[in-house]
Amino acid sequence: MTPLSALVLLCLSFASTTLANVTPGFPYDSQKVRGVNLGGWLVLEPWITPSLFDNTNDSRIVDEYTFGQYQDRTKALNILKNHWDTWITEADFRDIAAAGLNHVRIPIGYWAYEVYGGEPYIQGQLPYLAKAINWASKYNLKVLVDLHGAPGSQNGFDNSGVKTSNPYVSPTFSVQSSDINFAIQFMAFVTIQHRPDQFSIEDHCRYLQGYDIGGFGYRPPE
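Request: output the structure for the sequence above.
Response:
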């Protein structure tokens, strides 16, 4: 069993217990949240960055899944690296803070952490997420990591990573326990990677009780 899997099991075991309160790093009870979404960066969306898709000259390429499926992978990786390097930079975080905002929402797909079953997704996003979190810390901004593309697709639209034929029937995220567990593991990974010095195991589990999947907040019942 990997440490990450062990964390998930521990979280489940703590679910029925009372955990110590976690003091948030932002006064949510007294200060207004003013934020901006950094969409189209670590998860491709055709309506945000249409040129990335139009320039392939391939009508089959309609989402991030097909972006890696229907073109040379080295070429696709180079295109994505250039996009990741230039779409959002440290200057944007400086300007966001200077504009008086205090939060940034960063969409990312589960495939940044791991791909499985022969999926054609191209990886390389995680170092950019790490840089973004460091930039946010430098400019006193808080980060909401949005699992915008969940395993099995949470909505069947291209913004989940893969566009399915029937977005209201085909997605499996809400019905496959393996997809749900994979999503929890991803959020645990993000937490451990970027805040290992500030959370105990109980705090990790409490943190994971509220997360954002594809723009829809989820919180288990008390």
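The first strand starts at residue 35 and ends at 37.
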